[in-house]
């Protein structure tokens, strides 16, 4: 029981801590079904390498024979030949030189495993992008919720002021109804935000293997806002660890190994052999058992017939990889330019947002003074209150969108 209670306590403590974006990405990678292919790729490569290495072990074969014959010689100076013969043989062959074919098989297995891993890395980048979208979706809704809650506080203060003005004859009961209507609309907005946040949080939790994303009933798990810095000057670049560029390099390395494999098929193979045989005496002068040993050389020229086409196929594949790399660099540069353009636009919007919020707050304060003097209506006060809230919400949204655009630019540069 103590162990179970401690387990629940540690689990609650871990959930209560805000999740970072990088932590969510790592959890999503660990939870994504395709990630299990990494282990399968490694196991397949290991088994293939072991099989290739075992090709150097001696090749042992056992054979038997039984033959019946008619019309054999009945009279011979060497003795009478029998009508039937049976026997068995054991052969051991050891490869001494294989022309590099076994080594090529090992290199092919390693190169193919590297290509498979790089391909999976590219798929994981798509998972990172999906997680990032959901992560910032939750953060943006949190910002909107905070601004609406601030609006509720301002409406509550306005309600107190209107009640005081009603007592002094500066406002009417209908003005209180106007405030109540705005309070209900703010409450409805909070409900919409909460429902949408639950949806985003549930999707994010499904990705990272923790769904729903709640600590307990009514207590949402918090996400930590990233601290990425916006790019001050645009310069298209790609990280050295770019998954897609690494995939292209791995594919080219595989082509190099395939070229070496083609060359190894043109070389001869040399081996040692030892054969022991036993049979019934076919003739009196033939021994029942014997041993043979020697050197064997095999040189096959069939690979020459298809070599020209094989090399052409490799060249075409290399050319395709080159075009794919150029297309990726072009599209990636275009995406980087788009992301930086969005960053530059959001920076300008935020500078205007600060000015707009300051002006709206000044207008709201002046409107409040006019209402107290009886020269302005409560309806105008509420309108200005909503304008301030709208300006603040827009500023918060632009702040979060700028952070998201910056993280997206970094993600594009690491693809």
Give the helix/strand layout.
Layout: H1 2-16, H2 21-31, H3 37-53, E1 59-68, E2 84-97, H4 101-167, H5 173-208, E3 214-216, E4 219-220, H6 243-264, E5 269-279, E6 289-298, H7 303-373, H8 378-413
Helix pairs in contact: 2-4, 3-4, 4-5, 4-6, 4-8, 6-7, 7-8
Short description:
This protein has 415 residues and is α+β, with helices and mostly antiparallel strands. It has 8 helices and 6 strands, in the order αααββααββαββαα.
How would you describe the overall organization of this protein?
With 415 residues, the protein is an alpha+beta fold. It folds into two domains: 17-57 and 100-265 and 307-413, Outer membrane efflux proteins (OEP), CATH 1.20.1600; 63-97 and 269-299, no CATH class. Helices cover 66% and strands 12% of the residues. It contains eight helices and six strands; from the N terminus they run H-H-H-E-E-H-H-E-E-H-E-E-H-H. The strands form two sheets. Strands 1-2-5-6 form a four-stranded antiparallel beta sheet, with no helix packed on it. A two-stranded antiparallel sheet has the order 3-4. Strand 3 and strand 4 form a beta hairpin. The longest helix has 71 residues, at 303-373. The protein is rod-shaped and about 150 Å long.
Q: Which properties best describe this structure?
A:
415 residues; alpha+beta; Outer membrane efflux proteins (OEP); 6 strands
């Amino acid at each position: 029981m103590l162990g179970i209670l401690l387990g629940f306590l540690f689990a609650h403590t871990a959930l209560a801590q805000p999740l970072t974006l990088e932590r969510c990405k790592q959890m999503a990678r660990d939870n994504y079904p395709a990630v299990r292919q990494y282990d399968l790729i490694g196991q397949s490569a290991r088994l293939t390498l072991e099989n290739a290495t075992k090709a150097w072990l001696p090749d042992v074969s056992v054979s038997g024979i039984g033959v019946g014959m008619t019309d054999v010689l009945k009279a011979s100076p060497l003795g009478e030949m029998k009508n039937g013969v049976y026997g068995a043989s054991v052969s051991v062959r050891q490869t001494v030189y294989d022309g590099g074919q076994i080594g090529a098989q090992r290199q092919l297995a390693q190169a193919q495993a590297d290509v498979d891993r790089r391909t999976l890395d590219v798929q994981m980048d798509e998972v990172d992008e999906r997680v990032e979208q959901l992560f910032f979706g939750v953060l943006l809704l949190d910002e909107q919720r905070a601004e609406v809650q601030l609006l509720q506080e301002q409406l509550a203060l306005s309600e107190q002021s209107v009640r005081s003005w009603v007592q002094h004859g500066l406002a009417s009961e209908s003005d209180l109804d106007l405030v109540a209507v705005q309070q209900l609309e703010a409450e409805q907005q909070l409900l919409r935000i909460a429902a949408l946040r639950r949806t985003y949080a549930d999707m994010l939790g499904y990705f990272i293997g923790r769904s729903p994303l709640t600590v307990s009933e009514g207590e949402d798990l918090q996400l930590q806002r990233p601290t990425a810095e916006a790019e001050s000057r645009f310069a298209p670049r790609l990280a050295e660890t770019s998954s897609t560029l690494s995939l292209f390099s791995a594919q080219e390395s595989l082509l190099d190994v395939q070229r070496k494999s083609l060359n190894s098929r043109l070389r001869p193979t040399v081996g040692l052999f030892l054969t022991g045989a036993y049979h019934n005496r076919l003739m009196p002068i033939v021994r029942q058992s014997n041993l043979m040993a020697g050197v064997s050389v095999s040189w096959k020229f069939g690979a020459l017939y298809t070599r020209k086409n094989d090399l052409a196929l490799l060249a075409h594949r290399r050319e395709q990889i080159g075009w794919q790399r150029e297309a990726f660099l072009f599209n990636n540069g275009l995406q980087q330019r788009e992301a930086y353009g969005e960053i530059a636009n959001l920076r300008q919007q935020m500078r205007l947002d600060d000015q707009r919020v300051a002006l709206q707050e000044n207008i709201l304060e002046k409107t409040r003074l006019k209402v107290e003097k009886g020269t302005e209506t409560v309806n105008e006060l509420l309108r200005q209150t909503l304008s301030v809230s709208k300006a603040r919400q827009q500023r918060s949204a632009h702040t979060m969108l700028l952070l998201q655009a910056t993280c997206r630019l970094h993600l594009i540069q690491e693809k």
